[in-house]
Sequence to fold (237 residues):
Amino acid sequence: MSAPEKIGAFFDLDGTLVAPPSVEWRFAGFLLARDELGTVDIARWLGHFAKKILPDPRGATLGNKRYLAGLPESLAVDWENSLEEAAPPIYPAAMERMVWHWTQGHRVFLVSGTLDFLARAVARRLPGVAEVCATQLEMSGGHWTGRLIGEHMSGDAKARAVRNLAAKFGLSLWDSYAYGNSTSDLPMLDSVGHRVAVNPPSRLARIAQSEGWPACDWRASVSRVRQPQQLAAREAR
Fold:
């Protein structure tokens, strides 16, 4: 067994740590409530969807952020400030698992398909997150363009992110953990020695059972994020 600091714990965000709807849907709702999104923005998204759906279904859906084109980056700060009153609900069991890794001295990471600035805003309210790997959105002149920088952080991209983090932090992937709730997380799960299917749909549940991975359901209840110091004290008792 490796030293604790050589062990990583890689967590997906939406549906694994955060209860539905997704963090990006919550951000879109925030924009709609502030009248930052209108019919032109939705039409732009639909137009890109129609253009890409046949040649590039992934780009038409996961990679389509055209509804954000032209909006100021400052909205990310406004949304994060709003989390003081309405933070995305975290599964308590998920939080306890994160705290366990943190108190063991493991390196905790978020590897998420959501937009990077949204994932980082949530991460700043979670205990001991060492780094975030998420989908990067292009900017120009302080505004989003609606285009991605690089690839959407899902599927094989998550596995590459895990390997890069392991190289950066000197981690033993064989001794590390990964938590995901979707078959799109399988490359990430397959990258480590300890794989956990969280809130698994039927296909992922079948794979976990056939491979002998633990599966857990963290959907019993949700809660607001507590301060890391309070969580650590609770875990130590």
Summary: The longest strand covers residues 129-140. The chain has one domain: 4-20+88-236. The chain is about 40% helix and 20% strand.
